[in-house]
Amino acid sequence: MSEVNEGVAVARDYYDSAEADGFYSAIWGGEDIHVGLYDETDDIRDASRRTVESMIARVGDLAGKRVVDLGSGYGGAARVLASRGAHVTCLNLSAVENERNRALNAEAGLADKIDVIDGSYDAMPFEAGSFDIAWSQDAILHAPDRFAVLDEVARVLRPGGLFVFHDPMQADGLTDTSALKPIYERIHLPDLASIGFYRDALVARDFEEVEVDELTHQLGRHYARVREELLSRQQELGLPEDFVTRMAAGLGHWVDGAANGNLRWAIMVYRKKA
Q1: Given CA atoms 217, 61, 70, 231 in this order, what sign does their dihedral have?
Q2: Distances (CA, A) of 239 to 19, 21, 76, 250
Q3: d(CA 224, CA 235)
Q4: Which CA distances in Å does 168 have to 72, 109, 185, 225?
Q5: Across the beta sheet with 114-118, what order do the strands follow?
Q6: Which single residue of 20, 40, 78, 243 could bond 88 by disulfide (Cβ 3.0 to 4.6 Å)?
Q7: Where do the DSSP E strands lie in the chain?
Q8: Phi, psi (deg, nearest 5) at residue 231
Q9: Model confidence at 7, in pLDDT bands (50, 70, 90)?
Q10: DSSP three-state, residue 29
């Protein structure tokens, strides 16, 4: 098995596990698995949906647009996009998440507007120029070959199409990465991308930058809230003690990384040149 396929298999096995599915579907509400935008409320589901709305505001009118959602999870964003007039193709490697996504789409009456495809975003099963918008939320960090993902994004987007995404990243120019090693070990990869990485790699693929909104404080707040929710609901959820211990420690590393300046989080919009 190649290095890329091994990385894909690790992520798939994790998200397909009963413990991970129980945690994400309960703590994040079974709709969204990404960093939220918090204001006066600490509700994780409201904050997560606010991120989706913020991204939609940056891409404009969705009527008739073809959107590919890379690493779509339970499909919360896809259902919002579809309800605004887009046709959405969800591409996700977790069969467990995809099954829940399809069920939720059917319950919402949106099954005809959302396709759910089992697959990885570093080798998309779509023709060139198939989409108007490529959308991704905190998913590309799991890719063993980020260059391959961006090659695929450039291929499947039409000229003038938008790539709107966010991702947990490490700070540009970070020379001492020792504090981030627990995070690297958790995602089974040697590093994270950075804002500069995405900027340089996308410009090299004939994209132009539309907007980069750095919001790292939201990363720390989100992981702190998720950790707090996990610990407060541990008995209710019936999750294994060892899983909760590992997850709480892992969430703490993200909180620390945001606080000490080693991590970054941003909503980014790039346009493929016509």
Answers
A1: positive
A2: 7, 11, 23, 16
A3: 19
A4: 16, 32, 15, 16
A5: 114-118, 87-92, 66-70, 131-137, 157-170, 263-272, 207-214
A6: 78
A7: 66-70, 87-92, 114-118, 131-137, 157-170, 207-214, 263-272
A8: -70, -35
A9: low
A10: coil
pLDDT one-digit tens code per residue, 163-215: 999 999 999 999 999 999 999 998 889 999 999 999 999 999 999 999 999 99
Straight-line distance from the first to the last Cα atom of the chain, in angstroms, rounded to the nearest whole number: 38
CA dihedral 102, 103, 108, 113 (to 10 degrees): 20
**259 three-class SS:** helix
Amino acid at 78: A
Residue 138, Ramachandran bin (φ over 0: left; ψ between -120 and 50: alpha; else beta): left
What pLDDT score was predicted for residue 3?
43
User: Does the pLDDT value for residue 4 go beyond 50?
Assistant: no
- The answer to whether the beta carbons of residues 47 and 27 sit under 8 Å apart is no
Check if the beta carbon of residue 117 is closer than 8 Å to that of residue 125.
Answer: yes
Domains of the chain: 3-272 (3.40.50.150)
Burial 70-86 (b: 16+ CB within 10 A, else e): bbbbbbbbbbbbbeeeb
Tell me the pTM: 0.92
Q: Are 161 and 133 in contact (CB under 8 A)?
A: yes
Displacement of CA 53 from its chain's centroid (Å): 15
Mean pLDDT of 40-48: 89
Contact 77, 69 (CB under 8 A): yes
Quick one: tokens of 222?
């989100």
pLDDT tens-digit map of 52-76: 999 999 999 999 999 999 999 999 9
**Residue 26, token pair as written in the block:** 């309960």
